Amino acid sequence: xxxxTQPTSMDCAEGRAANLPCNHSTISGNEYVYWYRQIHSxxxxxxxxxxxxxxxxxxxxxxxxxxxxxxxLILPHATLRDTAVYYCIVRVPRNFGNEKLTFGTGTRLTIIx
Amino acid sequence: DAMVIxxxxxxxxxxxxxxxLSCSQTLNHNVMYWYQQKSSQAPKLLFHYYDKxxxxxxxxxDNFQSRRPNTSFCxxxxxxxxxxxxxxxxxxxxxxGSGGTDTQYFGPGTRLTVL
Lengths: 113, 115
What we know:
Structural class of chain B: mainly beta
Order of helices and strands of chain B: EEEEEEEEEEE
Oligomer: heterodimer
Largest interface: A-B, 24 and 26 residues
Helix content of chain B: under 10%
Number of strands of chain B: 11
Shape of chain A: globular
Helix content of chain A: under 10%
Radius of gyration of chain A: 13 Å
Number of strands of chain A: 9
Strand content of chain A: 35-45%
Distance between the termini of chain B: 36 Å
Order of helices and strands of chain A: EEEEEEEEE
Structural class of chain A: mainly beta
Number of helices of chain B: 0
Largest sheet of chain B: 7 strands, mixed
Distance between the termini of chain A: 37 Å
Strand order of the largest sheet of chain A: 1-9-8-3-4
Radius of gyration of chain B: 14 Å
């Protein structure tokens, strides 16, 4: 799986959009970008994933650059409950024998009231 | 609601005393994973079961074993816990293969303390 680079920490004001960047310059053509988050003392939670097109669901939007070397997770209206560590992971889905998630250091996002 | 359940949420054991952590799921997923997460670190995969097939990570110590008696349950056995094994242990499930969702669902974790 390709290595990812994320800022160690970020702050965002409550109600504002939180934009979390991720660099994955060595991503290969069949690797997807996944985002998970981990709220304190809980298990990680899936947020969203994508290959090359921008994706949106009820939790967030994922913007992937055209060269696929970086992406941004957007939480459109951050709330205090969005305070968590956010992990960007690249992997090949449905890759028999390599189903694991390899977590990097992640970004600790703090939402400020 | 379908979910991943881990029991107990907190476990205290003594140095060298075997301990078993349990995980159950109502999602009917074919893959179950055990991750170890030490304080201020990211989760790290120990092993996983793809159906009945056990897949051990190369750097998982022999002290850690797992059993999956059926689709719904998976156990993590630590044969002789050391102080360095104190961590949060996370169970996760996914549906892989045809019809898979590419998503892992995690339980709340069991926090293990070794005295």
